[in-house]
Amino acid sequence: EVQLVESGGGLVQPGGSLRLSCAASGFTFSSRAMGWFRQAPGKEREFVATISWSGGSTNYADSVKGRFTISRDNAKNTVYLQMNSLKPEDTAVYYCNRGGIQGYWGRGTQVTVSS
Hints:
Oligomer: single chain
Shape: globular
Helix content: under 10%
Strand content: over 45%
Structural class: mainly beta
C-alpha cells in the first residue's frame, strides 16, 4: 500500500523558513518522480514543485521559484520542500504527491505564514 506522510508544517512569520518532509512507503521510492502541491482556503489545489527519480531534474511553479527547493533522499525514502522567504500567500495545506493529479496523496501539513 502506497503511503505518503507529510510533516514539518507550522506557523511562521513572513520572511521565515520551514522545511517540509514526506516519508514514503509501499513502493520503490527511488524509481519514482515526486511532487508537492498546495491548497489554500477557498482555492483549488495547485502545483508547487516536482523532482525526478534521481533528483537530477526539478521543476517549480513560478510563484515559488527562487524561494523553495525540492530535494530527496532515496536512502531514507523521503522528499523535502525547503521553503524560504515565506509570504502570507504561501499559507496553505501542503500535500506530497506521487503520480500527479490522478496519483497518490498524503494527508497534508498546514503551513501558516502570519505575523
